[in-house]
Amino acid sequence: MSKLYIVPTPIGNLKDITFRAVEVLKDVDLILAEDTRTSGKLLKHFEISTHMQSHHMHNEHKTVENIIQKLKSGTTVALISDAGTPAISDPGFLLSRACIENGIEVDCLPGATAFVPALVNSGLPNDKFIFEGFTGKDAKHVYCF
């Protein structure tokens, strides 16, 4: 049975990847990567030779249908982003939603996220919080946030 795995990748330190993430990336038939150059370094480091295909914000609207067909034909697929959990301010939402709509299982692995450590390190109360996305890269966007 085919399945889409959402696989978090390390944020800055390759040792932060989980054993299960490495195992899944070695076992799937196809890895969808936000940037194949960045992800290639991660895969090389962990000796993962699984075929990789580009899947990013500029092409995901065009590639989702083809990926769904691959999944329906029995291909197992892992989705990774450059750092952190795919679909959290990264490509992945469209594919995840399409899988759910087509009855394809989606398995999101636990792992690296940027906002949880930021929240914990902030010292702010964290029993309730709202994630509104990441701030922009320049001062104007941070101020508007």
UniProtKB/TrEMBL annotation:
<protein>
    <submittedName>
        <fullName>rRNA small subunit methyltransferase I</fullName>
    </submittedName>
</protein>
<feature type="domain" description="Tetrapyrrole methylase">
    <location>
        <begin position="3"/>
        <end position="127"/>
    </location>
</feature>
<dbReference type="InterPro" id="IPR000878">
    <property type="entry name" value="4pyrrol_Mease"/>
</dbReference>
<dbReference type="GO" id="GO:0008168">
    <property type="term" value="F:methyltransferase activity"/>
</dbReference>
<keyword id="KW-0489">Methyltransferase</keyword>
<dbReference type="InterPro" id="IPR018063">
    <property type="entry name" value="SAM_MeTrfase_RsmI_CS"/>
</dbReference>
<dbReference type="InterPro" id="IPR008189">
    <property type="entry name" value="rRNA_ssu_MeTfrase_I"/>
</dbReference>
<dbReference type="Pfam" id="PF00590">
    <property type="entry name" value="TP_methylase"/>
</dbReference>
<dbReference type="InterPro" id="IPR035996">
    <property type="entry name" value="4pyrrol_Methylase_sf"/>
</dbReference>
<keyword id="KW-0808">Transferase</keyword>
<dbReference type="InterPro" id="IPR014777">
    <property type="entry name" value="4pyrrole_Mease_sub1"/>
</dbReference>
<dbReference type="GO" id="GO:0032259">
    <property type="term" value="P:methylation"/>
</dbReference>
